[in-house]
Design brief:
Among the domains are: 192 residues, no CATH class; 58 residues. The protein is built from 14 helices and 17 strands. A hairpin with an 8-residue loop joins strand 9 and strand 10. It starts with a helix and ends in a 15-residue tail after the last strand.
Length: 489
């Protein structure tokens, strides 16, 4: 019996039969525009590989830079100014404030929950008069460009589910990340760079902070071409295997990829697996990145004053947050749709006064420089910048409270983030917490509301960017969320 005859089994017959019955379905996967729902007339997005033939309404922003502060920055010490808290310093957190709310296992065994006022001064900034900590003088200097949301909240209370939640809209692993949704929906403005790029830096605070797993920038059940591409920091190739091995020329690489493309195309016709077409697209993107990435990541071409503004000074190979912020600006200039900067070290369960100073030194100057640089280049009005972590910190001390030091546990009931740029009000504060920074008393904003707002600024109705998986239409905001219209310009 020859090889062809061995394939003609009953299972093979029915498997091949599905190709005929499912031709239309396969065509819709390979080219979703063939069967895309007619959308309301609106501004067309730039040429890209995205699903949507048109945006749902005119966008205010074209791209996003998300400065993700992994570990949970303390809103109490940075953004949520409560002068009355000094009167409660050292006193037990009242039961009427805590209301029996869930706390983590790290403090549930404590017999005492003393309130801790910030050990830092606050002052008002700009014409808007937004209060911020002395630890953030440079971000305070751009206060009139920001909307500060003091009423964020999440159900997640531990790092992994909380990070997964804010990135993917679900606490359980397996859902697509925000950047993957944008790549899927509206693609990239540059065919030589990915739509979604991720960079990670280690802060000078908690050196043993929680790990960041690749599924937090993964595609979930979307085609894998929408996964975030991680750029490495410091020395060496910015992307693994971006450089051809010795002896391989560009012509050799092109011929090799053309041959692999032809073989994959045959397999795609025979098997009908859309992931094969994804692989073809990824090989081609990798080839294009070999030409585009080296120039993108060469910061020596930036003027010395620009590097100094970000805090790089004479060290353009620095692998930290400052370098990544400057790279983020260069990426959005070139049409990258979503840039995710993740800065670890914000998990201050102990030694908070010293560690948070270090964390703020890491990010204060570069984050402010990024906003300023985007504005002076005319890019801020079409770039949405977000700064925030997965949750906040408790008003009560974790461990022993002393004159000079203390810690704070995780707190999801309220925390602060800020946003700037395309579609967002300038010099605005949204939401309010109680005098203990423990509960929200006005204008709560949920994780789903935040993501709905981000999509809205990009011209996308969050209820209409969906993907059918296992019989259900999924979306980033699950079945929840509303754009926060009060913060929209």
């Amino acid at each position: 019996m020859n090889a062809t005859s061995r394939l003609l089994t009953r299972r093979h017959f029915f498997g091949r039969g599905t190709l005929g019955l499912g031709t239309a379905a396969l065509a819709s996967l390979l080219n979703p525009r063939l069967f895309a729902e007619a959308l309301a007339p609106s501004a067309l997005h730039p040429s890209s590989q995205g699903l949507l033939p048109a945006l749902h309404f005119a966008p205010k922003a074209k791209r996003v830079i998300f400065l993700f502060m992994s570990g949970g920055p303390s809103h109490i010490d940075l953004y949520d100014y409560k002068p009355k808290l000094r009167e409660h310093h050292g006193q037990e957190l009242p039961d009427s404030v805590r209301m029996g709310q869930r706390i983590t296992g790290m403090t549930s065994g404590q017999s005492s929950f003393p309130c801790v006022a910030p050990m830092f001064e606050f002052r008002q900034h700009g014409q808007s008069g937004i209060w911020m900590s002395e630890l953030l003088p440079n971000i305070g200097g751009i206060a009139d460009e920001l909307t500060l949301i003091r009423s964020m909240h999440t159900e997640a209370i531990n790092h992994d589910p909380a990070c997964t939640f804010i990135q993917t809209g679900a606490q359980q692993p397996g859902r697509p990340s925000l950047g993957a949704w944008l790549s899927y929906g509206i693609g990239s403005e540059n065919q030589n760079l990915p739509a979604f790029v991720v960079m990670i830096s280690q802060g000078s605070g908690n050196k043993t902070d929680q790990p960041l797993l690749s599924r937090m920038w993964g595609p979930g059940f979307l085609p894998s071409q929408h996964q975030g591409v991680r750029f490495r920091s410091g020395q060496g190739d910015p992307v693994l295997y971006i450089t051809d091995p010795p002896g391989i020329t560009r012509d050799n690489r092109r011929q090799m990829l053309d041959g692999v493309h032809d073989l994959n195309a045959i397999a795609a016709r025979e098997i009908g697996d859309p992931e094969i077409n994804t692989r073809i697209a990824q090989y081609e993107m990798a080839y294009q990145m070999q030409m585009s990435v080296p120039g993108l990541t060469d910061l020596s071409t930036e003027p010395a004053q620009t590097r100094a503004m970000y805090g790089l000074k004479d060290n353009p190979t620095d692998g930290g947050f400052a370098r990544n912020c400057l790279l983020a600006r260069r990426m959005v200039e070139r049409g990258v749709r979503f840039v995710q900067l993740m800065h670890r070290g914000w998990d201050q369960h102990g030694d908070l006064p010293r560690q948070i100073r270090g964390q703020c030194r890491d990010v204060d100057q570069p984050a402010a420089a990024l906003v300023h640089d985007l504005k002076q280049r005319g890019l801020l009005d079409e770039t949405l910048v977000v700064w925030g972590g997965e949750f906040g910190r408790t008003v009560y001390s974790q461990g022993q409270l002393t004159k000079d030091t203390h810690g704070r546990d995780h707190h999801g009931r309220c925390f602060s983030i800020w946003m700037a740029g395309g579609g967002i009000k300038r010099g605005h504060v949204h939401g309010e917490t109680d005098d203990y920074c423990y509960n929200i008393v006005d204008n709560p904003v949920h994780i789903h509301d935040l993501n709905a707002t981000l999509l809205h600024c990009l011209g996308i109705d969050h209820t209409r960017l969906t993907f059918k998986y296992q019989g259900r239409d999924f979306r980033l905001t699950d079945i929840h969320g509303q754009p926060v219209t009060d913060i929209l310009a």
